[in-house]
Specification:
about 375 residues, alpha/beta, TIM Barrel, 17 helices, globular
Length: about 375
């Protein structure tokens, strides 16, 4: 039987796991995903690590050692996360070597508390890069106004960057321009640009969650049946339309003479990465955000459940460039319905940063709770 996940690779799309969990590493599950499903990357973020660390006992032994050593909650988190990231990087290193640095990456994200501070973001990026010390590491920086200049400078310094929490087309253009100008600066300085890797993570399902709710509010506010049907027809359409138009921008920006000059020096494209691809609305297909966004030079980072679902019943076709006029029409119809695209995407980015901050709060509370338990046990 064919494996749809392997078929994605044949069409130029990499499959990454949107999860890092020590239980998966110890059980051998992660290794099997590489061997059997062609998994070629993994991404972590504060929410993922909060869930893994607080819901698993596999971290307890290392955590107790760190607590005994009087480490702060943040230092404990970083030690736990970096241990996992190093392990994942080493498991993916054969993929990285086999693809000559094109694939096989693992990502760790800077603290969400730094999302509005360029210099502190850069300091943490450099520290992660130096401490983890793996060529197939990517450090994740959010595409906030303060994040974009940090992204550019980190790339200038030769650090692989995964740009995260991106929702709008204008934000994507800023990120792509930062990548191109960083490569140009390195080339002008006589530095190698052939090993710089970057992905631009476009969040998908969250767009539909917010837009569908706004549409539902408008549906309830109108008594005209024809208008209600018109609004209902737009539900579940915004996210795919938005991502497909982002892919068109990718092709345009990396199909220019400007990038061709960089390509001649060994530069790689900054691949679009489809993030948040687990379906949140049970009324939609559980593989919707995989099946509809398949194309060359892309990455889909899937939660484990979505990956398993696509392996089981995913249908593969070159879909990311289908119905581009319709994608534009969807965004135009949303604007006509009174849904402000820029407001939606800005709200989603702000909420994304806050969700990661909330996850950090929960994680640090868990660490402090375990510290108290350990201290009580030692005092008995």
């Amino acid at each position: 039987m064919t494996n749809p996940l392997l078929e994605l690779r044949a069409l130029g799309q990499s499959v990454w796991l949107d999860d890092i969990d020590r239980e998966q590493l110890r059980s051998g599950l992660f290794g099997r995903l590489i061997a059997e499903d062609g998994l070629s990357g993994a991404t972590g973020n504060p929410t993922i690590f909060e869930h893994s660390i607080t819901h698993s006992t596999t971290y307890d032994e290392q955590m107790q050692q760190l607590i005994t050593g009087s480490k702060s909650a943040q230092e404990i988190y970083e030690a736990l996360a970096m241990t996992d990231v190093k392990t994942v990087a080493d498991l993916l290193r054969p993929t990285y070597d086999r693809t000559n640095g094109q694939d096989g990456f693992v990502s760790i994200e800077v603290s969400p508390y730094l999302a509005q501070d360029t210099e502190k973001t850069l300091a943490e990026v450099r520290r992660f890069w130096q401490t983890i010390d793996r060529p197939n590491l990517m450090v994740k920086i959010p595409s906030t106004p303060a994040g974009v200049p940090a992204i550019r400078q980190a790339l200038v310094e030769g650090i692989n960057i995964n740009i995260t929490l991106m929702f709008s087309l204008d934000n994507y253009r800023q990120v792509a321009q930062a990548y191109l100008s960083a490569l140009e600066e390195r080339r002008a300085a006589g530095k190698d640009i052939s090993r710089i890797a970057s992905v631009a993570s476009f969040f998908v399902s969250r767009v539909d969650v917010l837009v569908d709710q706004l549409l539902e509010d408008k549906i309830k506010a109108t008594s005209t049946s024809a208008e209600q049907q018109k609004l209902k027809a737009l539900q579940g359409k915004a996210a795919i339309a938005n991502a497909r138009l982002a892919y068109q921008e990718f092709k345009r920006l990396f199909g220019t003479p400007r990038f061709e000059a960089l390509r001649q020096q060994g530069a790689r494209v900054q691949r679009p990465l489809w993030a948040s691809t687990g379906t949140k609305n049970p009324a939609y297909s559980d593989v919707l955000y995989v099946e509809e966004l398949i194309g060359p030079n892309t990455v889909n980072t899937m939660p484990l459940k979505t990956l398993a679902s696509f392996r089981d019943h995913g249908r593969v076709r070159l879909s990311v460039e289908e119905d581009i006029p319709q994608a534009r029409a969807v965004l135009a119809a949303l604007e006509a319905a009174g849904i402000d695209y820029e407001q939606v995407t800005s709200q989603l980015q702000e909420e994304g940063v806050q969700k990661f901050i909330d996850s950090f709060h929960k994680l640090f509370e868990c660490i402090e709770s375990k510290r108290k338990v350990l201290q009580q046990e030692r005092s008995v």
